[in-house]
Each structure stands twice: as C-alpha cells, then as structure tokens.
Amino acid sequence: MEVVGVIKKIEAYWDKRSDSFDADHDTEDLQAWMEALNNLLGTNQNKNVLDLGTGTGFLANMTAKLGHSTIGIDISREMMNYAVKHAKTAASDAVFMEGSVLELPFMNETIDFIINSRLIWTLVEPDLAIREWLRILKPGGKIMCFNRMKEGVGLNIGKVNIYEDEEVDNHLVVKSARMEELKELLERNGLVEVQIQKLPGLTRPGYDYDPWFVLMGTKVSETGVLIS
Question: In this structure, what are the phi and psi dihedrals at residue 129, rounded to the nearest 5 degrees?
Fold first, then answer.
C-alpha cells in the first residue's frame, strides 16, 4: 500500500474516533498543562505556535489562551470540528486548517514553535516529517513532542493492529521507539540540544496512565550557530 493510501486510512480512523478521543481529555489537569506550556514556551507572545496533529485542539487552544498566535493542523476534519467548538467555549483565537504533517503549507523559517501531542507514534515517514518541520522552523525555533511514555523505556503503545489494518500498522515505525531512538530521530535530522523531559503532575490523580514527557530539539542557523 502506498503512503497516500495509508494516510487516508489513518484519517478515516481518527474521524471515527473523534467522539471518544475528545472525551479522553477530561482526564487531564488543564491548569497544570497551562503552567507547563507557559514554562516551555516562555512569555514572549510575539512567538508563534504550530500544533501538528492538533486533533480536538487540546494544545492549540491552550497556547492561544497564553497569548501566542497559534495554528492547529490535522488530517481529520471531524477531530477539528471539536477543536473549533472548544475554541469558542474557551474564547481561544486559534486557527484550524486541514493538512498533512508531511507537507505543510508554510514558507521556510516562519514558525517559532512546532508542538504536538501523541502524534509522533502515528508518523508513517518520521524522517521525512521531521525534515519538513525543520524546513518551516525559524533558526533558534523548537520542536516539542508531547507523549505519554513508560519511564526509562519509551513509547508504550499497547494495542496491536491499532488501525485494524495490518499493512497500515506496519508503517508505524516509531510506535514502540525507545527514548534513545526518539532522541536520535531528531538528532539525525539536524536538531540540537535534544532532550526528553518528564512533565510531572499533568494527569489528574486516580488515572493509571504512563507519565507525560516532552521530546524537544532546537534548530540551528545555516552557519551552525545556535540562536537563542
């Protein structure tokens, strides 16, 4: 199956899952998330944010509320219908648009922060994706990938045949990546200062989930200088 066909099947899956996926975020401590995002992004509201695989707008609406110009992009219209509804409820001015994280409709070096939540394990061509993200990222800009991970191990996507299509699932080459493999994915595609940081206190007590981590890296200038 060609990649285009795989992506169409993934899109259909998330359209179907939109209702239950939206309900999943009821388990999150939104105030703790706002504080964590504010610490990671900083207080300079002149920096923009692109939320890839935005889904129901979980991250995008929070970064917009923090004052950052924010765009959320996703292949699933049904997921983004929830994002727009939540934006109205939260008085968020985030903008949402349909698109693929493998081919982004933005000019080179125009984005300060690229963020995503539970996206990286779904990537069918992760190296191509990271290089595309790097293309639109400004020198000194950062990529931040938020994921629940098994501590000291890495991604722990427990389901087998998630998309109910073995060929599609075989394309999920990052699904069970260890922490070292995730860091190497960013490093081999040109990011520096790559690290994985645990984000304690984000999930509400009483929910037996793997803890949240953020995989981060920074883009250097063409001369190899790290711009802060």
Answer: -65, -50
CA dist 46 and 87 (Å) reads 20
The three-state secondary structure class of 139 is: strand
pLDDT tens for 87-139 read 999 999 999 999 999 999 999 999 999 999 999 999 999 999 999 999 999 99
Q: What would the DSSP string read from start to end of 151-217? A: TTTEE----SSTTS-HHHHHT-TTTT-BHHHHHHHHHTTT-EEEEEEE-TT-BPTT---PPEEEEEE
For 79, the 3-state DSSP assignment is: helix
| DSSP type of residue 43 | S
66's tokens:
């923090």
Handedness of CA 154, 159, 161, 164 (dihedral sign): negative
Contact of 56 with 18, CB cutoff 8 Å: yes
Query: pLDDT, tens digit, for every residue of 39-85?
Result: 999 999 999 999 999 999 999 999 999 999 999 999 999 999 999 99
Domain segments of the chain: what residues? 3-218
What CATH number does the domain located at 3-218 have?
3.40.50.150
Taking CA atoms, 88 is separated from 14, 34, 74, 84, 122, in Å, by 22, 18, 18, 6, 28
Which pTM value belongs to this model? 0.93
Report the alpha-carbon distance of residue 143 to residue 154 in Å, rounded. 18
Measured distance CA(173)–CA(70) in Å, rounded: 29
